[in-house]
Structure formats: C-alpha cells, structure tokens
Amino acid sequence: MAATMTSVQRRVLTIAALASFVAFLDGTVVNVALPAIRDELGGGLTTQQWVVDAYLITLGALILFAGSVSDAFGRTVVLRIGLIGFGVTSLAAGLAPDPVFLIAARAAQGAAGAFLVPSSLALITEAFDGPVRGRAIGIWTSMTTGAMIAGPLVGGALVDLVSWRLVFVINVIPIAFALWMLRLKHTSDERNTDASIDILAAVMCTLGLGLTVFALIEQPNLGWGDPAVWATFVAGIVLFTMFLLRQRTSRAPILPLDMFRARNFWSGNVATFFIYAALSLNGFVLSVYLQQGAGLPATLAGLASIPMTLLMVALSSRAGALSDRFGPRIFMTIGPLIIAVGCLLLLSVSGDFNYWTQVLPGLLLFGLGLSITVSPLTSAVLGAVDAKRSGTASAVNNAISRVAGLLAIAAIATIVGGSLDLDGFHRAAIVTAALMVLGAAVSFLGIRNQSEPSA
C-alpha cells in the first residue's frame, strides 16, 4: 500500500492517526483506572460515571462546533489548538487532588479532544481520493479503534506499575510527536473567509446534553421525584430541542440538518448511535467487572482486550478496501451481528471465573465484528456528503458516537440494577447485544451501495 501513497499523504495519515489516537485512547484508557481512582480520591459508581461522562459530554457537544470551525478556518490550525489543549488538560487531570477537580479537568479535556477528531479525519478526505482513500480510512480506523480497545491494556499496566495518574500524563508523548509532524506538513489549508460560527448553538447543545446526562446519572440515587433530577432533565431536553430548531434557520449551522437528506448519511449515523452505545457500555462494564467482580489486577484486566486489538489492527485496512469494492452494506450488517453473538457468549461468565473459556471466545468475535464494521461505516457516512463538508460530516458522526456513549454510561446504574455484580454484568451483555442487533438492522434496511447525490 505504501507504493500508492506520496510522502505528503503518508505524513498526513500519520498526523491524523496520532491526533485521533490520543482522543480515542483517553475515552477508554480511564475505564480500567476507575477502581484505583475511587480508592484514592473516593466516590462510588456515580463518581466513576462522571469521570467518564464529563469527558464525553464536552467531546460530544463541542465536536459539532469544532467541525464547523475546521471547515471554516482550516484543519491544521484547529488540529494544533486541539493538540495543545489536550496536552495541558491531560496534565491537569493527572495532578487532580480530588474528584471534583478531576471531573472538571476531564470536561476540559473533552473540549480539547473535540477539536482533534473531525480535523484529523478531514485531513484524510482532503489528501486522499479514489480507492486509496478507503485504505487510508481503514488504517486510520485500525489506529483509532485500536486505541479504544488497547486503552484498558495501557491503563492497566500504568495503574499496577506506577499510578493511575500516569494514564493521563502519558498523553503528552504522542501529542508532542504529532505537533512536531504538523510542523513538517507543507500543504496549505482551504479556508472560508465568509464563514461564521454559531456560539449560541454550541452553548445550547452543551448545556442540553450536560443537564440531560446529569439527570440520568443522578436518578438512581435521588429518584425522578427530586427536582434536581426532573427539572434538569426537562431543562436539558428543552435546550437541546431549541438547539435543533435553531439549526433549521441558522445561517451557519453547526449541525446542518440538510446533510441528513442523504440516505447513507442518516442511516449510517443511526447505526452509529446503536453500535457505539453498545461499544461504550461493553468497554465500561468489562473493564470494571474484571477488577471489582472477577478480582483481576488492572494489568490483567487490560490484557483481556489484546485479542480485539490485534484483530482490529490486522483486518481494518482490508475491510476498508473491500468495502470500497463491494459496498458497505453487507459489512455493516454482518459485523454488528457477529459482535452481538460475542456479547451473548459473555453470559457464560460465572462465579467460578475462567477468562479462557468464558471471556476470550466472546472477545474474539467482538474484535472480528468490529474489524468488519467500523471502517465501512466511516466510509459510508463520509462518502454520502461533498468532500468540502467532510470536517462537518466527520464531526456529526463522531458527535453521535460520543453522545451514544455518554447516554449508555449514564444509564449503566439502571441497566445493571444499581450494582455491577455478576447479574448486572449479564444484563449489560444482553443490552449490548440488543443494541448491536439494532445497528445491524438499521444498516441492512438503510444503507445503499449505489452512489447517491452528495448532500
């Protein structure tokens, strides 16, 4: 494949992969550190949920804003802002003296991460075209999704050998390398000098999501009758509805609703919601249960994800190329169904825990299904819109995946029945499988392989 790329394209792909790697890694690496954070800083399941969701709220809400900024003012400048901000906030999280400071640092970290993902993927769509674009997206997918899955391994080793704080501080190394590579990028950005950014819409989106998630997380503790729950839930829904209404009339919408007229764009994003809600739910529950339920140390809990990582790295690029050849529909249908079967195999986990017979078979199917699904899904969504709007399209898709994840994490207490014991683990596996089946159904019914007019 290297022979089909120019040196500039290889450099762009490296920068894009590194920038996305740290954002995706930090979305999952923290999962395996949650028990250690609880032990040192205090707090129960609610605090653990907030450490994860504070990051996902700002990432999911501001990624739309960042996508429009990227299209308007250039990918490189937005990427540089995101890298610097992510490095600073990672250090702040690593030095957190208490849960409140850590949650605030995680929210700021998510805001910085919002500027990384859409800009990095838009760099690829600008630098590559034709069949090589599918392969480039496949490599980007294997790196970024591999980061999501390898996160527990990296986090586990750092937690056991040094401290959970290094889980955040270690981000500085790939960020510094990406910034250095960015200096060597000799291509210029395309900027829209007439563009304007809707700050009010960004505020509505962020507050709407934040208040809704606050209510979902606190509801198991306070109950729906508490004003702190129902009032914030209603306020969040109202604000997010106002945000959507504003997008219909805004001169510069951060969520262009007209993009959803393209069949593959709207159906791909609906599939994304179900698939990534399942991924986030599974990642959180598996990492925490292997430690708190099965009694594994953090390193071994992280090592559990190695089979999925290897499959993703080995197969994602090939899946991207095959998707370009045969169309994404079959891959986006079969992949989630394979993952669903893998989730159901986790029901064999019992009090007499055995990783090799109860967990590994399901994780192998999980990794195979992910390898088949993610790259074709990304290609289908981005291929449905004009390349000039690739930053916004990528931002919408990534925002939906993050929002799906934060809602799944917010609902964990309800899904597992208030406690992540063996019964709760089994309930989470069933819900994860059901979400994957929904993702497969949407892909089969909604995705079309033939070309369609770009939105």
TrEMBL record:
Keywords: Membrane, Transmembrane, Transmembrane helix. It is a multi-pass membrane protein. Residues 12-451 form the Major facilitator superfamily (MFS) profile domain. InterPro entries: MFS (IPR011701), MFS_dom (IPR020846), MFS_trans_sf (IPR036259). GO terms for cellular component: plasma membrane. It comes from the Bacteria. It is found in: Cell membrane. The chain crosses the membrane at residues 12-34, 54-70, 77-97, 103-124, 136-158, 164-183, 195-216, 228-245, 266-290, 296-317, 329-351, 363-387, 399-420, 426-447. One of its GO terms (molecular function) is transmembrane transporter activity. This is EmrB/QacA subfamily drug resistance transporter. It comes from Microbacterium halimionae.
